[in-house]
Design a protein that fits this description.
Elements (H helix, E strand, L loop, with lengths): L2 H13 L2 H8 L3 H15 L4 E4 L2 E4 L1 H24 L6 E7 L1 H18 L3 E7 L2 H9 L5 E4 L8 E10 L1 E5 L10 E2 L9 E3 L5 H12 L6 E4 L3 H9 L5 E3 L12 E6 L5 E9 L6 H19 L6 E3 L3
Protein name: LysR family transcriptional regulator
Pfam families: HTH_1, LysR_substrate
InterPro entries: LysR_HTH_N (IPR000847), LysR_subst-bd (IPR005119), WH-like_DNA-bd_sf (IPR036388), WH_DNA-bd_sf (IPR036390)
């Protein structure tokens, strides 16, 4: 099996067509087809299903694609590392927007100090999207709020975040003290993301356990727009303390919700150590150090470290 054949296979799957892939690779369609056929013969299985509209991967092809991407990723990392006498390469990390607000810049700053030749890429998105990117090896690691069932991935609990009600002091029903409860904000007009967010499920489940129906007046998926609506007094929101980084209004209050069931757990998921590049392993160590430092210094309000 040749690396070239693996690269050809990935391009064909991504293009969905032998002809398009051949053009992108600057080879003839017959040459590309022959190399794919050799690969299938060596593996003794069919990887692609030919159709009138193009090609799609078979079940075996999908599984091979996952490993093929990992192989090419590590070859790229190895090539990059051998061109430098120091640890180098590219490491991509998935984070939710609220997590990135608190963690991204301190991580990038510390990585630049310790490993200036490692290029760290921060990818923001929802847990489901980041999971897809991680499964297809387009991310090296991802910070998620649910681990699910995937024996192929390692999971490291990083932190537990308490949640805060954030709103304008002039908003009717907005609590004024340092702490509040779900019962006290039952009638408070809330602005939340849509139900596909893990955070919303956590909030709704906590209200349900108290037999309280929250007063949701707006649903906004974009964090910047949501926090702008909060600053305009359209309602309050429930978020981790990191969301306050977007607030530029001195009249906005952040009040801790004391209900024990209302918290968000952040878990760092990644392939096994054997699959991770040296650069990714080094980045994981730095990430843990940065999380530990932010929590110990009190810069991450409401966060509790979950690793030793």
């Amino acid at each position: 099996m040749e690396l070239r054949q693996i690269q050809y296979f990935i391009r064909v799957v991504e293009s969905g067509s032998m002809g398009k892939a051949a053009m992108a690779l600057d080879v003839t369609t017959s040459t590309l087809s022959q190399q794919i056929s050799k690969l299938e013969s060596e593996l003794s299985t069919r990887l692609l299903q030919r159709q009138s509209t193009g090609v799609i991967p078979t079940g075996a092809g999908l599984e091979f694609l996952r490993h093929a991407r990992a192989i090419c990723h590590h070859v790229e990392q190895a090539s990059s590392a051998t061109r430098s006498e120091r640890l180098s390469g590219k490491v991509s990390i998935g984070m939710a927007p609220t997590t990135a607000l608190k963690l991204a810049l301190p991580l990038l700053t510390e990585m630049r100090k310790r490993y200036p030749k490692i290029k760290v890429q921060i990818v923001e998105g929802l847990s489901a999207h980041l999971t897809t990117l991680l499964d297809t090896r387009r991310l090296d690691m991802s910070m998620r709020f649910d681990i699910g069932e995937d024996p192929r991935m390692s999971a490291l609990p990083l932190l537990k975040e308490k949640l805060f009600v954030i709103g304008n002091a002039s908003l009717p029903g907005m609590p004024r003290g340092k702490r509040t409860s779900l019962e006290q904000i039952a009638d408070l007009p809330l602005i939340l993301p849509t139900g596909r967010h893990t955070l919303v499920s956590i909030i709704i489940n906590a209200f349900n356990r108290k037999n309280i129906r929250p007063n949701i007046v707006l649903e906004i998926d974009g964090l910047n727009t949501l926090m702008s609506a909060v600053q305009q007094g359209m309602g309050a929101t429930i978020h981790p303390s990191s969301a306050m980084a977007l607030i530029q209004n001195e009249d906005i209050l952040s009040v801790l919700i004391t209900d024990e069931s209302l918290f968000r757990c952040t878990i760092l998921t990644a392939p096994s150590d054997e699959e991770l590049s040296p650069a990714a392993l080094a980045t994981r160590v730095v990430l843990k150090d940065v999380v530990r430092s932010l929590i110990q210094s009190g810069d991450w309000d409401g966060a509790i470290r979950q690793f030793s």
